[in-house]
Amino acid sequence: MDEEVRRADGATEPERDRERERDRDRDHDHDQERDRDRDHDRDREPGRRRERPYDVVLFGATGFVGALTAEYLAAHAPADCRWALAGRDLGKLERLRERLTALHPGCASLPLLRADAADTTAVRELAASTRVLATTVGPYVLYGAELVAACAAAGTDYVDLTGEPEFVDRMYVEHDARARETGARLVHACGFDSVPADLGAYFTVGQLPEGAALRVDGFMRSNATFSGGTLASALTAMGRGPQTLAAARERRLHEPRLPGRRVSGPLGAPRFSRETGTWALPLPTLDHRIVTRSAAALERYGPDFRYRQYASVKHLPVAVGGAAAVGGAVALAQLPAARRWLMGRWEAGRGPDAERRARSWFTVRFVGEGGGRRVFTEVSGGDPGYGETAKMLAESALCLAYDALPDRAGQLTTAVAMGDALLDRLQKAGIRFRVTSVR
Predict the structure, then answer these.
(1) Is the pTM of this model over 0.85?
(2) DSSP of 35-92, one letter per residue?
(3) Tens-digit pLDDT profile for residues 391-423
(4) pLDDT tens sequence across 29-85
(5) d(CA 337, CA 10)
(6) Beta-bridge partner residues of 43
(7) Cis peptide before 336 (omega within 30 of 0)
């Protein structure tokens, strides 16, 4: 029998071979990790692209706001942007492409991708094909989860138009950790919910002293109407009160605490606002949650930050009537039959015509104070629910695809993910952010 050859440390030759194999495996794993990190870093550099067919894919392109977003991209996407339309009905996609081509002949070769939100395989392939995926398909709590999961797994940046707190909280619990691992940025609420509130508060905080306790109130006014899809999403969210509360509780169990800092977003009470000269009704929407999450993530909001948001109404009878109408809608939404009846009053995929949208506007006034300074700011624009929402969603997708941004991943807000870059884009696109007074 041959003698075993031993090293100085007492290991036999077979043992040494096994250790060499383990070392090679470790080196291989290290090389792969280094390559992933290098690719991830290159993705964050402006002008660099992942080796994927598309820069931006718009999913749900044939819906009402989806088609408006497609029109905006056709007119404003960079000439070298590789973008595509996606949805479940290829015939509708073809008709949309024909409409776009009539306005912009270059759209004649625009790729069309067929995918159903319920088809897991198709959704995964869709997410893996693009750097940024923008979706307008709601209600998101019913149709959005597979797409978020696919983007988190593929390292694909994601933007949507949701105003549904339950959906946002569920997606945080289920996919934030995975997105951090892959480098995906999951950015919800990139339309009227909740860009004016989030970036408006961000803009206002930037006018106030650093390191001070800050208080910001937002007062929203608009004359806009809504589409069938918006109504369906709102009524679905209203009818899921217990699920929404459960999702919020579960999220709180997973969110990190803020040592040494405090952030709050109380609803407040109805009141007359001397600052704006209007009646202020608390808005229990997603907006104030998004703003406070931005504040929790960014130390610039100070050691103690509070945000409240209101609907701003000039006349008391209108305020009372509006509050009663919202209360009635919430009550009816708890009854499935009543909810279906209300949804049936407005057909999905239809909304206000171009003439009505042209007359629509929104204004959000902010009052911020802290560190001995008081500042009044304003965010304003045209039709909030459709024209400006399409602009906000498209510019968010392009911002993620092209701009130099903070190296952050996971579920993020627009202020945290894009901040000044998106603020600059929206200002250039015609949405106004301005300081109206400083005291």
Answers:
(1) no
(2) HHHHHHHHHHSTT---SSSEEEEEETTTSHHHHHHHHHHHHHS-TT--EEEEES-HHH
(3) 999 999 999 999 999 999 999 999 999 999 999
(4) 545 444 444 444 444 443 334 589 999 999 999 999 999 999 999 999 999 999 999
(5) 79
(6) none
(7) no
